[in-house]
Amino acid sequence: MNSKKVIAIPFAGGNKYSFNSIEKYIPKNVDWITLELPGRGNRFKEDLLNRVDDMVDDLLDKIIPHIKEGEYMIYAHSLGTLLGYELTKKMIHKKMKLPKSLFFTGRGAPGFERSSKKRSILPKDQFWKEVNEIGGLPSEFFDHEDLLDLYYPIMKSDFKAVEDYEFQEMEKPFSIPIQICMGEEEIGEENDKTPLKNMKAWQNETSSSCSFELLKGDHFFIFNNPKAIADKICRVAMDINVLV
């Protein structure tokens, strides 16, 4: 019998434990696999990466053992969404088995960035002040000084990767369904917000269906109601006969 898999890619600063609150609501007959980049979690002793291309190459190596059998979908949030998009492009180029669906949260289409500001070059105090202001991490994170010290180099590397990213339009779009979900509070025309048209521009990245949804909350709306997010992920998968 085919295995049932959701392969997840975390947000900036994230690790293999980042989606635990969502994963606990995933049915037992579904394999939830969170990929982890170097320099964090179980890979803490490895050198950090600060280029999207290098991160994608690393994720490509890590995903291969998980996609040999059965169908799978990719779920990703924020930086993970950008990496999931580029990972899928690379898998197409290498003629690998592709995900049956992409479920992306917390980021507008890859051709658009919220801000051109280079936060990765800021000193630590100013860096964390601005990360907090833009909702770049769950708010409770900032109550722990030891965590801020630990995560400073990790977050700087992740932010640099996003800031230096150069979008390359595909010759032809994916033929994979894409589901996009963002928090109501991260949508807008102000600096560090995502205009609604930039969210809707995801439709340009696939010739298949592309659905959009806004939920209450800020950039980390996915943790406001993790069971609802888990249910949405499973429903998407079942709708395309991945996990049924």
TrEMBL record:
Q: Which residues form the Thioesterase domain?
A: 5-233
Report any one BP term from Gene Ontology: lipid biosynthetic process
Q: Which domain of life is it from?
A: Bacteria
Q: Which SUPFAM superfamilies match?
A: alpha/beta-Hydrolases
The family assignment reads:
Belongs to the thioesterase family.
Q: What is this protein called?
A: Thioesterase
The taxonomy runs: Bacteria, Pseudomonadati, Bacteroidota, Flavobacteriia, Flavobacteriales
